[in-house]
Amino acid sequence: MAGRLVSDFTHNGLIGNHQCRNPWHRRPQGVVTTKASLGAPERAKKILMMGGSRFIGVYLARTLVKAGHEVSLFTRGKTPITQQLAGESNEAYAEYQLRVKHIQGDRQDFEALKSKIGEAGFEVVYDINGREAAEVEPIVDALPDLQQYIYCSSAGVYLKSDLLPHFEVDAVDPKSRHKGKLDTESLLQDKGVTWTSIRPVYIYGPLNYNPVEEWFFHRLKAGRPIPVPGSGLQITQLGHVKDLADAFVKVMDNPKAFNQVFNISGSKYVTFDGIARACAKAGGFPDPEIVHYNPKNFDFGKKKAFPLRDQHFFASIDKAKQELDWTPRFNLVDGLRDSYELDFGRGKFRKEADFSTDEMILSAGRVHARV
Amino acid sequence: MALSLQFAVSTPRQASLEISKLTPGYIASSLSLRSPSASSLHSLGTSSGIAGAVKKSSRRWRAAKTVAMAAAANEVSNRKVLIVNTNSGGHAVIGFWLAKDLVAAGHEVTVMTVGEESSDKMKKPPFSRFSELRDLGVSTVWGDPKDVGAAVGGKSFHAVLDNNGKDLDAVKPVVDWAKSQGVEQFLFISSAGIYKTSDEPPHVEGDPVKVDAGHVGVEDYISKSAFKFWSSFRPQYMTGSGNNKDCEEWFFDRIVRDKPVPIPSPGIQVTNIAHVSDLSSMITLAIGKPSASNATIFNAVSDRAVTFDGLVRLCARAAAKEAKIVHYDAKALGIDAKKAFPFRNMHFYAEPRAAKEKLGWTSSTNLSEALKERYEEYIKIGRDKKDIKFEIDDTILSKVG
Q1: ipTM value for the complex
Q2: Cα torsion at B100, B105, B107, B108 (round to 10°)?
């Protein structure tokens, strides 16, 4: 299935960008070509992206712009709205800078927000940074031509369960930290607008501002043991940001995605110990020393001793694979290598290394590390 | 409530995709399109529902779905199928359920059980219930895998399933006989136990396997035997009526007697316990769609993992009792976990991805419900009153202190 070739932002060449347009397109005699799109979209969309300058949006906006859509990023303007990516040519970056648009504003100021976005005729909204339903309502109200509201939710909404993985139909936790995401999904439903909600698990990749892989890379680089709570058998799931961006593109203008929720993450799950080993492989480090400890034996105060929630946490992506004809391109080690080579391995990271909790754990001694 | 769902179907593949959506979950989500109320979108849970926060599917859906899947999506029908069935062990129950599902799908079935009809092994389920198969028109015979022809009396078959052997010694004679008879489709019950351990669950089809495993040799031999169609199915653990081997009973034995349940630490190891109907529906689909299932290995499992601790909780709920879990470090205490606990002491979790992708199969295992049904049977046969010795448990509990 061909598509417009776009740079995958590494110096290693091009990959196909699968753009799913008009999937119910039928040729005569009832022959169904379920995914018939080739090349540029039939009609460029006017797209409003809430957020989009930090991580997911960086890749998503580029893909959409390259595909010929008109993309406006709505941000507070505190950080530059574009940045050149590692491996991106000056020409490609200049082209992107020229074409992507910016609306500056505070999305919490609902009246100002409505006036800034109301006149532009936006047809699609990608809401990458919305947290509460109240933030979404003014956008929906302000856009009479809105065809689809695409929302970045979270697999964190699922109720903890002894039966995993989480499927889209599973019970959600009305008391979760991500309650706002649930409320937003319900609001979109109630408003009658066509919506799609994407629930990622842990996202990783170059420019990640959540220290997931970075946490492991800091320790590997320093040659330090990796403290993992409990048995290290907890199972979770990492999804590459570029695969997530691809999924976001696939759901746009796709009837199979209308009013649907999709889990989006990596194809395989991974244990906590497994992440440590995968990060080591990705960065060319030797097999790490892993130290297990009982978190109940420590008081870390406000500091996080480990970047991931201490429980099984993974979701099935079967629905997205089947309905959207999407599949992750990156396996875990390759994806972590992509992140390492384009980000941490070039000396870039978001949070300074802080080994204070590590020291507490290690000094307590291996004797106390039995679980 | 009668549900009538209209699908615009123009190709068989679309049909199987639409049929495969006949799970309550999908129906619920498509209903939510018509009733724009917030509560229909989310199935809300409470934190007390930790055991099973999954949407329920009932037996009625399961049965209807199996027949619908089989009927709507078949490439072939009215196949003559031979099941060569083991006479004991965890896989014995597969043949029993499969025979029934195949008949429901319109095929003609012969079950050849290894050994003799008069053997003591035949007094245990599922063999003790073979009259149920005969009532459906299934032919039940007994014999030796080294001479299948004699057992089936010269009958010919389109498809042969070996649900007996674990290595080439046991299966080769069946494969060679089938080949010589011009059997079109050969299917084999292998094992998910052959997957190499990995940091990245689940085991998916295509993952590396232990090359020296007997089942691997068999799969290899079958794939090279030039059958028109072949498939291999890799199960894990099963629950279901007619089971020949204990599964959940180990948990019920302790819970119903108010004994603590010793679980190897840390208790979060995951496994996969499928209702046997997931396997029978999958194999039935494969027989009805030989091109789609050809040259393919299928993980014959449900699509959910359960933790050891979670399984205790689910069994306790099924029994409407409290359960006390006691974790122990098997190695440190010098306990042989293989004898002390019914499941492999590690993450052992495969997913049925090939079946979903290639056959349009969906899982209908609802472990909560399955365990409730099994608990009712457990009580019905009076097993709660049985005098059981818990020697290993007692050793563990005394060591844990």
Answers
A1: 0.86
A2: 30
Q: Residue B194: give its domain's CATH number.
A: 3.40.50.720
- Determine, for residues A233 and B347 on separate chains, whether the beta-carbon distance falls below 8 Å: yes
Phi then psi dihedrals of residue A277, to 5 deg: -70, -35
Range of the domain at A355: 213-236+268-370
Q: Is A40 exposed, middle or buried (0-12, 13-18, 19+ CB in 10 A)?
A: middle
CB contact under 8 A, B200 and A164: no
CA-based nearest residue to B232, from B244, B247, B221, B245: B221
Interfacial B residues in 17-36 facing A (CB < 8 Å): 17, 25-26, 28-29, 32-33, 36
Q: How far apart are CA A261 and CA A169, in angstroms?
A: 9
> Taking CB atoms and an 8 Å limit, are B29 and A173 in contact across chains?
no
**Are B53 and B99 within one domain?**
no
How many domains does chain A contain in total?
A: 2
> Are B266 and B384 part of one and the same domain?
yes
Closest CA of chain A from B304, distance in Å: 5
CA distance B285 to A214: 46
Predicted model pTM? 0.87
Whether A230 and A356 map to the same domain: the answer is yes
Query: pLDDT in tens for each of the 371 residues of chain A?
Result: 333 333 344 333 333 333 333 323 333 443 333 333 444 556 899 999 998 789 999 999 999 999 999 999 999 999 889 999 998 999 999 999 999 999 999 999 999 999 999 988 999 999 999 999 999 999 999 998 899 999 999 999 999 999 999 999 999 999 998 999 999 999 999 999 999 999 999 999 999 999 999 999 999 999 999 999 999 999 999 999 999 999 999 999 999 999 999 999 999 999 999 999 999 999 999 999 999 999 999 999 999 999 999 999 999 999 999 999 999 999 999 999 999 999 999 999 999 999 999 999 999 975 444 45
- Which domain range does residue B335 map to? 239-271+306-348+366-401
Q: State the best of B16, B23, B35, B42 to mutate against chain A, taking most chain A CBs within 10 Å.
A: B42
Verify cis geometry, omega within 30 degrees of 0, for the bond prior to A225.
no
A359: Cβ contacts below 8 Å, ≥ 6 apart: none
| End residue of a domain, out of B304, B327, B357 | B304
| Pair type for strands A70-75 and A101-104 | parallel
- Whether B139 and chain A come into contact, CB under 8 Å, resolves to no
Distance of CA A69 to the CA centre of its chain: 21
Are A174 and B32 a contacting pair at CB < 8 A? Answer: no
Verify whether the Cβ–Cβ distance B269 to A161 is below 8 Å. no
Which residue from B minimizes the CA distance to A179? B44
Residue type, A153: S
Say if residue A257 is in the same domain as residue A337.
no
Q: How far is CA B304 from CA A92, B350, B368, in A?
A: 45, 9, 12
Distance from CA of A329 to the nearest CA of B (A): 16
Question: Residues of B with CB below 8 A from A177's CB?
Answer: none
Residue A32: list chain B partners with CB under 8 A. 10-11, 14
